[in-house]
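hey m, so remember when u said the tokens were messed up on ur end? i reran from scratch. heres the input so u can diff it against urs
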Amino acid sequence: MEKLNILQISNRVPWPLNEGGTIGIYNYTKAFHSLGHKVTLYCLDGYKHNTPITEAKKELEKLATVLIHPIDTDLNFDDALKHLIKNKSYNVSRFYNRIFEQELIQLLTNQSFDIIQLEGTFVGPYIDTIRNNFNGLISVRMHNVEHEIWERLAKNTSNPLKKIYLNILAKQLKKYESNLIKKADTIVTVTHEDASKFKKLYPKGKFKTIPAGINLHTWRYTPSSTYHQWYHIGSMEWHANVEAVNWFVKEIHPLLQNEDEAYCLTIAGKGLPSNSFENIPQLNTIQNVPDAYEFVKSLDVCIVPLKSGSGIRLKILEAMAAGKLVISTTIGAQGIEYINQKHLLIADTPQEFLSIFQNIKQGKIDYVEIIKEARKLIEKKYATEALAKEKLAYYSRIMV
């Protein structure tokens, strides 16, 4: 394949590697670079993320030309109300910045690219500007079906006013995503389920499913030999993770505490309100994980208790690669080509989580064999460099 000049546009800086979205972007940037292509990474950076810019540039510039533009994405009540009245998606509009747009025009005027890959829904506000200033292939890589996440959040809330508001946000996002995918040359999803949902919105679109990938050099196989140290890792700035962790701590953690005093849960993630989980026995919290692999390596069982969500959970693929047993809800594990009880374990209720723990304890579940099969699955289907090759081969075929 000829060497390509690729521009990735992201609503976040893919550093540090402390949450699934940033890791997913970074892994493909690194894979494109490893395959010999030229990469430019143009990112928005929300003030609230407190990104270590100097460190981020130092690391990312090993792989790409890096441009970072700060932006205020904090919620503003007046702006939210105006968008509600106008029936426009405030979720998306927070990521529009006029200076970023002008700098993007200048970039496209001064440089020539073969492919522009937009990383998700929230850089959608720039697609018209890109189309007006660029004649090459425009791909939107959809990390999630965003409107589906909000639909599920609305369904799961018991507050009637909040339910109404969340449903409005979901409808606005659905309308926005429907229009966005019509403007791209191709839409790349991370799961077949997501592709089918977007196809319903735009049957004429060109869709390709390329899963999120794992760097097997980073995620070395270090299998656990016990099952007592459970963990959840994920940004608590994402509403679906907040919902999941609160449910697990309230409904499931007490059952496992009573079952075995050796059981312990560690919750880690950016934005974690550690004081919310103070004085809970057998529970530890970590706000900042400097090295995700070393953190995961030290523990035994990865839990993904999502009740809302979309796309694919990199934390599951990472845990499977590293030799950790994964216990997930059906929603948490969606998009992964797994077989329940062969590659991971599915639990959708507190009692199912408890039963799994009891069955492992009693030797009725061979978790060591599940760990082995999970690693084989990752090696076969989810190695990033092979997936990046597949993606670029697809782009090359449709670049006419």
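this time it looks ok to me. The first helix runs from residue 20 to 34. if urs says something different then somethings off w ur setup not the seq
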